[in-house]
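Minutes, project check-in
Item: structure for the 537-residue chain
Input as provided by the requester:
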Amino acid sequence: MSNFGQILKEIGEFGLFQKRLVAALSIPSVFIAFDVISQVFTGLSFPHHCNTDWILKLGPNLTEERQKNLTLPVNKAGKYESCEMFSPVDLDLEIIEAYGINTTAGCIHGSVFEAPKGASSIVTEFNLVCDRSTLIEASQSIYMAGLLIGALVLGQMADRFGRRFVVLLSLLLLLVFGVGAGFSPNIYVYIVLKFLGGFSLSGILVNAFVIGGEWSDSSKFAFCTIICHSTFPLGLMLLSGIAYLIPNWRILQLVLYSPLVVVLGIFYWILPESARWLITQGRKEEAIKEVRRAARVNGREVPEDLLDKLDDEGASKRGSILDIFRISYLRKRAIIMSYVWFGTSLVYYGLSLNVGNFGLDIYLTQLVFALVEFPARLGSLPLIQHFGRKICLAGVLLFGGAACLGILVIPKDLPVVVTIIAVVGKFAATASFSIVYVYTAELYPTTLRQNGVGLNSMSARVAGILAPLIRLLDVYHYTIPMLIYGIVSIVAGGICLLLPETLNVELQDHADLLIPENGPQTRSFNEEEKSEKSTKM
């Protein structure tokens, strides 16, 4: 057992200090849910047609229906075209009524939206329909690109400057960019601010849960991680209700992100640095100060002889992301986990961002999607504690992929059945996300943990970028998107079986070069799994 592991036993492996810390660290997950899924509501589309007010100059007393009849062509279904109009002509109204207009054009004067009173979205305000409709998917993909870059940059920053600094910085940036997006004068400024918001969100995603886990015993790491993320579905539920009550997207942005001012203030005063990380950086005095603070809250005393034995050689062992690729067993894990994260994220966002296309009310469907996340996240904890991380992760990925493929065999005129299967897929994808955070963090040593989690989560952000773009492939055939989501998830479930198990294994602090005293040797994953001493296995 490491010196820090012994200290945890003295100050309390999961006392009041750790419980209070994990409870506080669960708060940001609410805002993560707001930021990731909010465009489902801020980007709502409404029935629309071309603006044809030009004809009112010829007939100011025309009724709305008569105006549409004279200026809008009808499609094969007998409905007015939404992106096409008859070309404006300089003729008398009587001639137009008698002979009609034979030429058509796009919506040269913009579009008219049939939105409820007081409702607005980026679609209605920035006219994101017809030839501009792809900007909605583009904005979501660029947002995911922000998450990708943030995972790489802020993950390395956390291993270099500390978990606490990065979490506080990320909360501040998310507040600024989230509120700022509500004042966007055009779609391009909105996209830039969403990108920056995604960048800042990564610092919370890959760092907050690790602080709680590193302050607890290894056996509690999974519990801390899943509890920190368990408020994400609460955020989704709140988002559905708030969006229903506030149909104006600008006001919605302000309401969703303004409370971060309070959260940032609370975290500045109560959030500790990871003592385990401080030790690996050779900052022994700061680590002792944090340990004594934790012991005081837990009502314990720390033996001075244990504090004197704290490892003080971490300064020479600072890791970089390149170490993951230099060390063979870490390189294998990084490659496999990168694809697993990719598959998990692709099916999760593929279903979550497609919530408006399952045929039922979007607010109700989102609420059901949120409700199913509670048992998916909390239920995964006893499963991984009993059966292990590897088997459970493989199982939910295979299950989620099968659900995506199952949607394809259901007729489109059965939206309730399609939604039920989508909910099952969302359940599996959510459980997979909960497990993959635990599993990934346990596979890397403390000196490289945030680099590793950041590197692997980059793959999830690539999937997040591709998920909305893959949806555009339905113009070729409606089955293509779900087919891709399903196959990728099933393959991810298969290859994660190549990873070692980490159940009941102590967290590593430093990377092991796998060079024993009697000379170098190589070990397979199967041989690694036999060890129960550390995550180097």
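Outcome recorded: Residues 312-316, 515-537 have pLDDT under 50 and may be disordered.
No further action items on this chain.
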